[in-house]
Amino acid sequence: MSDKDSTRLRLLEMIEQKTARIGIIGLGYVGLPLALHFGNEGFHVIGFDLDSRKIDKILHGESYIKHIPADMIREMTDGKRFDVTLDFSRLKETDCILICVPTPLSDKMEPDLSYLLETTETIADNLRTGQLIVLESTTYPGTTEEMLLPRLESKDMKVGEDFFLAFSPEREDPGNKEFTATNIPKVVGGVTPSCLEVATATYNAITRAVPVSTTQTAELTKLLENTFRSVNIALVNELKILAHKMGIDLFEVINAASTKPFGYTPFYPGPGLGGHCIPIDPFYLAWKAKEYDFSTRFIQLAGEINVSMPYYVIEKTVEALNKNRKSINGSNILILGIAYKKDIDDDRESPGYAIMKILLEKGAILNYNDPWIPKLHTTRKYNFQMESTPLTPDLLAKMDAVIIVTDHSDYDYAEIVKHSNLVIDTRNATKGIKGATEKIVMA
């Protein structure tokens, strides 16, 4: 048996016996659930993050993500299966390193891989024989082999023999109780057949791995999944505007179309796109396509439509206020919900921020309420220093307009409509509320 075979077989045996130590870099909405799932399957997990607040909360048995119960974290930490640290030199202690760091877009809508680049350099400084490195962060096809591989491979360390490198796109859906890391299949692409074998075994330990031929295939799979959603959401967003002009309830149309048992998947309109993937991933693909002198016109058009939706919400708000003989300049407006989707505390890329920015530029006086997000976070684009205002009948009565941006289940929409002067509904949340239709404007 050659040394390269023994290295691979030793790691495979450790994975099978669950003695392999799993390192998770980035303990956010993807990394933390992944760490807990590996821990639940009996692996020892070491979590790495630059945010000392996250590390401190985990060490104290607390959760900073609302849909992840604190008792899940305490169970892992008390059982000595989950350790967290700011010390990245401890990467040497791990056998499988999963990278879950942010890959946002720059102001010019180009990939910002600075977090990934820094992480890769850190791994390279601590790389040892027999380790598996898997990139989970969303990126363009070619990143794993063009960016990570040259920085990890050296004269003494050869991929597929001394260490293993793969890409497996995250498929986390925050707040989804039906699908988690334990029952969502994981697409896996390896740099070499040995890399694919080891990475597949790692993910088969917690769910069902779906191996593909190359890392580029796996990378493009992720972009296809979210571009598919982006394009279809853009379609219904554009149809929503047309349906409003035609006096047709698009949600009724979508529900009717959903009765077709084949060839149709329902998507629903809203105030714009949010989250860490759908607003970003199509632009990664469009950017990479330029390298091949190819223009992804369909994808870019969908992105333009989705980006424009906050402006449509403002347009409908201005029209509704005008009918009440009010100007948006000086009007008191309440934003209901800033999370990018219902019943989560994730505000990344939320269209609510764009709506708030435009309203402030037009002179509106803003308040917001979100039971899931008590204080607004500073983001790469926005810096709103605001806290959630308690939702009371008196507050609603004082507002010139209430804009429903996120349709949280916590809200009593009948009461909201009852006490409000004007409701701009971007989510069809007020459907079925009778006796106050003159107050409600669909946007």
Can you describe what's shown?
There is one protein chain. The chain is of the alpha/beta class and 443 residues long. It folds into two domains: 3-213, Rossmann fold; 234-442, NAD(P)-binding Rossmann-like Domain (Rossmann fold, 3-Layer(aba) Sandwich). It is 40% helix and 13% strand. It has helices at 3-17, 31-40, 52-59, 70-78, 114-126, 143-152, 193-204, 215-246, 250-257, 281-289, 297-323, 351-361, 393-398, 413-419, and strands at residues 21-25, 44-48, 82-85, 96-99, 131-135, 163-167, 186-190, 209-212, 332-336, 365-369, 401-404, 423-425, 440-442. Helix 6 links the parallel strand 5 and strand 6 (163-167). The radius of gyration is 24 Å and the shape is elongated. The mean pLDDT is 93.
Q: Which sequence of SSEs, written as H and E, runs from N to C?
A: HEHEHHEEHEHEEHEHHHHEHEHEHEE
CATH homologous superfamily of the largest domain - what is it? NAD(P)-binding Rossmann-like Domain
- What is the helix content? 25-40%
Structural class label:
alpha/beta
- CATH fold node name of the largest domain: Rossmann fold
Radius of gyration: 24 Å
Q: Oligomerization state of this entry?
A: single chain
- Count of DSSP strands: 13
| The number of domains | 2
Cα separation of the termini = 67 Å
- Mean pLDDT score, rounded? 93
Largest sheet: 8 strands, mixed
Share of residues in strands:
5-15%
- In the CATH hierarchy, what is the architecture of the largest domain at level 2? 3-Layer(aba) Sandwich
